[in-house]
Amino acid sequence: MEFELILKKIQSTLDQEEEAQFQQWYEASEDHRAYFRRVEKEFQKEQSIEPQPKQAWEKIDQRLFAASRKRYWWSAVAALLILAFLAVSYFFEQGDFEMEPTIVEAPTQQMENEVLFIDQEGQQLILSRTQEVTGNYYSAGESGLQLTGKPTTKGKVSGADDPKINTLIVPRARQYSVELSDGTKVWINAESKISFPSDFVGHQIRRVNLEYGEAYFEVSPSQGHNGKKFVVLTQGQSVEVLGTKFNINAYPESDAQVTTLVEGSVIVSTPNHIQALRPGEQSLNQGPGKELMLQKVNPEQVISWKRGKFIFYNKTLEEIMQVLQRWYDVQVAFKEPQVREKLFNGVLNNEQELEEILEILESTNKASFELNGSSIEIWDSKKGNGA
Amino acid sequence: MDLEFEYIKKGGQQAFRRVFDRYYPGMVQYAYRFLYDRAASEDLVQEIFINLWEKAASYDVKYSLKAYLYRSVRNRCLNHLKSIEVTDKQYLLDITISLSTEDKVEPIEMEDQAAMQAKAAAILEGLPQKMRHIFRLKVLEGYTYAEIAAELDISINTVKTQLKRARARITKLNELIVLFWATYR
User: In a mutagenesis test of the A interface, which of B18, B163, B173 is the best target, namely the one with the most A β-carbons within 10 Å?
Assistant: First the structure.
């Protein structure tokens, strides 16, 4: 296994053959997995370590020289042993604390931006990052909501005419997830709204509505639910699923609703078209009357947002800034229109501080940025800024 | 001829202690850039020092003791990686280490050196001009941070920042963001 493949894995750029090679190595031993995890951590945030020469010298001294002093200084040897023991325990207690990643604290203004949950009774609940919320059919934690048990609707018999709809609204600078009553898992990106029933009892199909935003679905197979289909509705499009992994990007400001299939099969329907997708394919729905476009993509890159990353190839600065707006809850103003169209490649991670991201974007000499509080102004690169 | 090494060969404990104090931290940091495991890196370097003391007479130190010690670290680390079936024929570990180490280090055998430099030269092509210059001085010419700063009349911090970014580009991730290149439509 080449070290290069480890780096490519972290960056999600392995091709199929390399991925197979990687998996074989990765699954072969826990030592392999441990090494991969350490490299991944390191390359997400460069670690610095402080070696402990004093303790190390005690150990070496103990092994090489303590014996020769033995005849003369029994008590010194005893003391040394204790020291060495202390050194060893100190060493172990220290563990590898330096290697803990430094997690960048989210700006305080974001603390107010909490996830809003509207339960089946229409009650609005703020899901705070620090407190667990539990209801009679759900429990909500820091990173996700789980629909746990049979909902009881007060005084009513539940049935198909009683939709028992729940809604999650995820604000900017947050991501959230929900596990539906059928076991389907949904990851929800920043600035998204999704609604779903408390359970699917009495429903002919399992239906979820992505009103806007982006979500990644791992759908529990239909076989386990009396063959009930799973359907995701967005504005002007439905995606029908039999049990599969896929991503839908339906932000209102983007030109197209983008559906990407990772695994299994889905059928994308618009008023004019019906299109089945195969894994690795992506459909672009550019609105009524337009053709449904199809293209091949690397699905791992598309869903990298769910690991807090955004991988982009030949994306315009405008598209990149749309993501930054959502992740960091900032306003962007292009001061010179030609900058919008400039193309970039790279990897963003949402634990990175915004200032640092802008600084690195600026280091390409393609554009310059000014951050004032929560607004960013963008110019063409300043003249004379080049090296 | 390394004077400290001659003392060590003759059983000089003081010289041994001086060499240990001087090189131990750097060697551990060097090992860490291969293993990414602090405890294992410290153990590995301690073994090298114990070996140096016990087997100094059989050592063939051609150039400097420092180069010899660093080469031992690299060889042991690569052996360790081999045991977990990891190889680095692309010299990516060596190149990234060269970028993130203050010192001039020559731990690599001549044939490896040539192959690494060929790889580094290829990487060089993709870097912006200013970064390319600094990268060349550090990796290919073996300058220290301070020497680069003096040569280009820039601050040592600028040198460090540029090299950190170059490292990010090579590893294509680091710090969570990387921009490899920017193009116009």
Answer: B173
Q: Against a cut of 0.80, is the pTM above it?
A: no
In DSSP notation, A344-370 reads EEEEEETTS-HHHHHHHHHTTTSEEEE
Nearest to A38 among B21, B36, B89 (CB): B36
Distance from the Cα of B112 to chain A's closest Cα (Å) equals: 16
Residue with tokens 């090992």: B31
Place of tokens 């074989």: A24
Q: Which of A46, A97, A368 would you mutate first to test chain B, the one with the most B CBs within 10 A? A: A46
- Inter-axis angle of helices B38-55 and A53-64, to 10 degrees? 40
ipTM > 0.85 (yes/no): no
* CA dist A46 → A20, A103, A104, A309, B124 (Å): 28, 12, 13, 17, 22
pLDDT, tens digit, for every residue of A290-305? 888 899 988 888 888 8
Angle of the A3-10 helix axis to the A30-44 helix axis, nearest 10: 60
The reply to whether residue B84 touches residue A361, judged by beta carbons under 8 angstroms, is no
Q: How many CA atoms lie within 13 A of A257 on its CB side?
A: 25
> CB atoms < 10 A from the CB of A108, how many?
7
Residue type, A317: L
Q: A387 vs B128: CB contact, 8 Å cut-off? A: yes
